[in-house]
């Protein structure tokens, strides 16, 4: 039996051919079957980091679900002739999974961001989804010596889904390193998702998201912090894309569904 989710490579980086609807259904299947799952999102900047950071590359290669969170990834897949169905943004999937969790009774733990931001996020989710079973929450400002305590807190919460609001590559590496110690089914990175829910940052208008200019909106919000990152990562992504189009990574992978832990 296979999961039916195909894995391809875009600009050399693996990504799954998966829509938001399919991702939600797959994550629900894995939660119901108690299959531990690490969800990672791929955008242009992360493709660049994949090629430059061996630790992140190892995490991405072994992730259970790799979703395209960037229109350039989707566009390049169509040019390559291996089209991805759509962009699956981390913030959007977080919202969808929270809604599903409230309906299905899944327990959710929020980890990361500043203390006031994660507390506000928890309050916003509980207000919007009264049936949500919030297993707990904790900010992301802890030192390595406290990681066992954090893992113990998540285990004790009996959460099914943990959302990790940290920057890249911290959230990916943290999730890969600790998933087996958390006793949760799904660990999903959400980046700055809590900041959006809490109202600290705003997302770009839908039209900017659709045409791949959400990064411009974010650059306008935080120009001093983001300009070097986008100049560097966007330039390198273009170079990796050209290499991909000229030489290609044609391999596809169809992976068996993990066996249930029951």
Question: How many DSSP H or I helices?
Answer: 12
Look at the structure and give the CATH class. Answer: Alpha Beta
Order of helices and strands: EEHEHHEHHEHEHEHEHHHHE
Structural class: alpha/beta
Helix content: 40-55%
- In CATH, the topology is named Rossmann fold
Q: Per CATH, which architecture? A: 3-Layer(aba) Sandwich
Indicate the low-confidence ranges by residue numbers: 250-262
Strand content: 15-25%
Overall morphology = globular
Mean pLDDT, to the nearest integer, reads 90
Largest beta sheet, briefly? Answer: 6 strands, parallel
CA(first)-CA(last) distance? 17 Å
Q: How big is the Rg?
A: 18 Å
Task: Give me the side-by-side strand order of the main sheet.
Answer: 4-3-8-7-5-6
Total number of beta strands: 9
> How many domains is the backbone divided into?
1
Q: Can you walk through the features of this model?
A:
- The chain has twelve helices and nine strands.
- The chain is an alpha/beta fold.
- It has one domain: Rossmann fold (3-Layer(aba) Sandwich), CATH 3.40.50.
- It has a six-stranded parallel beta sheet, with helices on both faces. A three-stranded antiparallel beta sheet has the order 2-1-9.
- Helix 2 crosses helix 3, helix 2 crosses helix 12 and helix 11 packs antiparallel against helix 12.
Q: Which properties best describe this structure?
A:
single chain, 262 residues, alpha/beta, Rossmann fold, 6-stranded parallel beta sheet, 3-stranded antiparallel beta sheet, 12 helices, 52% helix, 19% strand, globular, disordered C terminus
């Amino acid at each position: 039996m296979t999961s039916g989710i195909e894995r391809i490579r875009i600009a050399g980086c693996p990504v799954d051919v998966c829509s938001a609807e399919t991702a939600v259904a797959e994550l629900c299947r894995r939660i119901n079957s108690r299959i531990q799952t690490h969800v990672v999102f791929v955008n242009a900047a992360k493709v660049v980091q994949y090629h430059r950071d061996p630790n992140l590359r190892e995490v991405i290669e072994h992730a259970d679900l790799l979703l395209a969170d960037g229109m350039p990834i989707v566009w390049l897949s169509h040019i390559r002739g291996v089209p991805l169905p759509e962009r699956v943004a981390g913030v959007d999937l977080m919202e969808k999974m929270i809604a599903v969790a409230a309906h299905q009774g899944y327990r959710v733990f929020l980890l990361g961001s500043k203390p006031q931001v994660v507390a506000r996020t928890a309050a916003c989710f509980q207000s919007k989804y009264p049936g949500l079973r919030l297993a707990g929450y904790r900010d992301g400002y802890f030192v390595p010596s406290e990681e066992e305590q954090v893992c113990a807190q998540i285990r004790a919460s009996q959460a099914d889904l943990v959302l990790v609001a940290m920057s890249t590559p911290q959230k990916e590496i943290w999730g890969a390193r600790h998933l087996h110690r958390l006793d949760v089914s799904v660990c999903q990175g959400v980046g700055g998702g809590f900041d959006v829910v809490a109202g600290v940052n705003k997302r770009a208008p839908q039209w900017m998201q659709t045409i791949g200019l959400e990064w411009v909106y974010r650059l306008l919000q935080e120009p001093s912090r983001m300009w070097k990152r986008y100049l560097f990562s966007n330039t390198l992504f273009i170079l990796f894309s050209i290499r991909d189009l000229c030489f290609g990574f044609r391999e596809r992978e169809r992976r068996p569904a993990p066996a249930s832990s029951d």
